[in-house]
């Protein structure tokens, strides 16, 4: 059984990132060119491995947020190009490390770097990208920017370790889960947006507003990702269903289904997620239990809540095409569940 999270809207009504893409298309092209230049190295394995994951796809959402936030705040220089590149390097480094920790073999339908080159190479190239990101921050020369992005990098690392501690633990609370995704995912969204206000030399209240927007958008984004892992909609995104389940990853749909289930059901979750003794049909049973207890629908409902908080955070900004593009991102992030 595969649960559909299909809503009432037809495809023609679904939000897109078109407005965002049009706004930053020329800047994003410059970011992509800089990414290629700055991941170059005399050590041939570095650009080869880094180029594999960079070329694997993805919407460049985080650097796009930096670019449009800078525009929203009236910035008219060139520093946002390098800093958006820095944001993407941090993100890519975390993906390389994530795939090693999770022992993942596929990302966006392609073999992961660790599957092709091994764990050691992936970890070390991830370290290189982190180091390159810090070089870019120093070259920018802004202590506030350095503080924002370095703090985000530290928080992301803490989130990785915290997730390792809670891995395969069905006793994980919803609060503990939220703390992990706030650190692992949302912190970089928040930093990517906040530096736009710093570049525009906007007041603290606008920095905080963009930080809040990014943080809550990032939480909503990850909640939807975690629901999608058990949804038929995952197939339309070119991804396999149940990767989190097979890895024993404790996400909110499992936290809710476990809490709401009977003792017999909890025994199933402990066997499948803690002991990783998975049998044929276990994924289908897991999805059925999530459906029975409303775990997937409630995960998406929580994403809508955080999306609404992100929307409210933009309330202090005047209406503009940049603000509307940022609002589009919220709708797009949540609508992926349908």
Question: What would your notes on this structure say?
Answer:
The chain has 16 helices and 2 strands. It has one domain: Orthogonal Bundle (Farnesyl Diphosphate Synthase). It has a two-stranded antiparallel sheet. The chain is mostly helical and 338 residues long. The two termini are 17 Å apart.
Order of helices and strands: HHHHEEHHHHHHHHHHHH
* Large-scale geometry: globular
Structure class: mainly alpha
Radius of gyration, in Å, reads 20 Å
How big a fraction of the residues is strand? under 5%
Q: How would you write the strand order of the largest sheet?
A: 1-2
Beta-strand segment tally: 2
pLDDT averaged over residues: 90
Oligomer, anyone? single chain
Largest sheet: 2 strands, antiparallel
Low-confidence stretches: 6-11
Looking at the overall shape, the CATH architecture is: Orthogonal Bundle
**Percent range for helical residues?**
over 70%
- From the N-terminal CA to the C-terminal CA, the straight-line distance is 17 Å
């Amino acid at each position: 059984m595969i649960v559909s999270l299909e809503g009432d809207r037809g495809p023609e009504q679904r939000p897109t990132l078109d407005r965002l893409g049009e706004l930053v298309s020329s800047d994003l092209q410059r970011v992509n060119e800089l990414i290629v230049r700055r991941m170059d190295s005399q050590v041939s394995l570095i650009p080869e491995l880094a180029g594999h994951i960079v070329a694997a796809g993805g919407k460049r959402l985080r650097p796009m947020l930096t670019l449009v936030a800078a525009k929203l705040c009236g910035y008219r220089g060139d520093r946002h190009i390098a800093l958006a590149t820095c944001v993407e390097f941090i993100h890519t480094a975390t993906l390389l490390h994530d795939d090693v920790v999770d022992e993942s073999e596929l990302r966006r339908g392609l073999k992961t770097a660790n599957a092709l080159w091994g764990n050691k190479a992936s970890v070390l190239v991830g370290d290189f990208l982190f180091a390159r990101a810090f070089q870019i921050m120093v070259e920018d020369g802004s202590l506030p920017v350095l503080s924002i992005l370095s703090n985000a990098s530290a928080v992301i690392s803490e989130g990785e370790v915290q997730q390792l501690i809670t891995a395969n633990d069905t006793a994980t609370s919803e609060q503990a889960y939220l703390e992990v995704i706030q650190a692992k995912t949302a912190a970089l969204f928040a930093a990517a947006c906040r530096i736009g206000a710093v570049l525009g030399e906007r007041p603290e209240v606008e920095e905080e507003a963009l930080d809040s927007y990014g943080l809550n958008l990032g939480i909503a984004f990850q909640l939807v990702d975690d629901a999608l892992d058990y949804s038929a909609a995952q197939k339309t995104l070119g991804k396999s269903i149940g990767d989190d389940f097979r890895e024993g990853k404790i996400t909110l749909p499992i936290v809710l289904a476990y809490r709401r289930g009977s003792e017999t059901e909890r025994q199933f979750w402990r066997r499948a997620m803690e002991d990783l003794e998975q049998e044929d049909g276990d994924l289908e049973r897991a999805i059925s239990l999530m459906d029975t207890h409303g775990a997937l629908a409630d995960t998406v409902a929580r994403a809508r809540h955080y999306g609404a908080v992100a929307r409210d955070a933009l309330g202090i900004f005047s209406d503009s095409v940049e603000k509307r593009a940022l609002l589009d991102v919220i709708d797009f992030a949540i609508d992926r569940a349908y």
